[in-house]
Design goal:
- With 82 residues, the chain is mostly helical.
- The chain has a domain at 13-39.
- It is 59% helix and 0% strand.
- The protein is built from 3 helices and no strands.
- The longest helix has 22 residues, at 15-36.
- The radius of gyration is 32 Å and the shape is elongated.
Length: 82
């Protein structure tokens, strides 16, 4: 039994190493929970977002021929001018 180590020869992990690893794991879990469940965003009432959305009605659907033509003309004119 030459290659086996006895119980007295085993390397022991120091309690400080185990404690620091546990602290890092707990801190990471706390940060993850904070980020996942709002992260302080609950304090914002979102009034600016709602007022901007109410002020502008966003059109959905395909563009009309007039919209395409006017946008293309404005783009090409701005591109020509640099």
């Amino acid at each position: 039994m030459g290659s086996r180590r006895g119980a007295a020869e085993r390397r022991r992990t120091k309690p400080a190493v185990i404690g620091s690893v546990a602290a890092v794991v707990v801190a990471g879990a706390g940060f993850g929970a904070y980020a996942m469940y709002g992260g302080g965003a609950g304090d914002d009432d979102g009034a600016r977002t709602r007022s901007a959305a109410a002020a502008e009605k966003v059109k959905s659907g395909p563009l009309t021929a007039a919209e395409v033509t006017s946008t293309a003309q404005r783009f090409l004119t701005a591109w020509q001018q640099g």
